[in-house]
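Q: what sequence does this backbone want?
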């Protein structure tokens, strides 16, 4: 699902409301309802086609937002000491 973000909106609350409206609008798109049938069709394709399909599908991705945390690693000494608010050993997601 692709949602254009309202980056020109300066008010954070109005921005979140607009994002919510756009996401809900996309969720009711007929294409979203076709995804289960598409998944079943892809499931019967030969596995040798999977890499080509994955590559073709990834060409239009600009940004992925998720609530799933990345690989956790300890913060480096520089990261811990560069921000005075961080006093303990904090963990943060590793860079991709």
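A:
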């Amino acid at each position: 699902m692709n949602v254009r973000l309202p980056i020109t909106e300066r008010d954070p609350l109005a921005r979140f409301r607009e994002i919510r409206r756009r996401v809900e609008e996309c969720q009711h798109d007929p294409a979203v309802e076709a995804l289960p049938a598409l998944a079943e069709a892809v499931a019967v394709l030969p596995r040798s086609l999977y890499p080509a399909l994955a590559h073709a599908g990834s060409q239009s991705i600009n940004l992925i937002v998720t609530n799933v945390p990345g690989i956790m690693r300890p913060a480096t000494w520089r990261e811990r000491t560069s921000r005075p608010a961080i006093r303990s050993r904090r963990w943060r997601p590793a860079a991709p």
